[in-house]
Amino acid sequence: MSLRLFLVLASSLIVLASSETEAASRWRLIETADEAGRTCVTVGGEDIGYCLLDPTTPATMRVRGPRRLKIVTRYLYPEGESGIAQYRLLIDIDGESQTESNVLVSPVAEAGACGNSGRVGALRRAYISVPSGWHDVSVTASTVDGGSVAARFLRELKSRSIRWSAYAPERFGGVGHLQFESGERSTYYRFDSVQPLAFKVSGPTSVEIWTRLDFDHTMSGVQPYSLEVVLDGKSWRTFHYDTSKLDSAVWIERPDMLPGERRTMRLKIPNGTHRVEIRCLKPSSGGLAAKIRIPERDIR
Question: Could you tell me which CATH class the domain 3-156 is placed in?
Answer without folding.
Answer: mainly beta
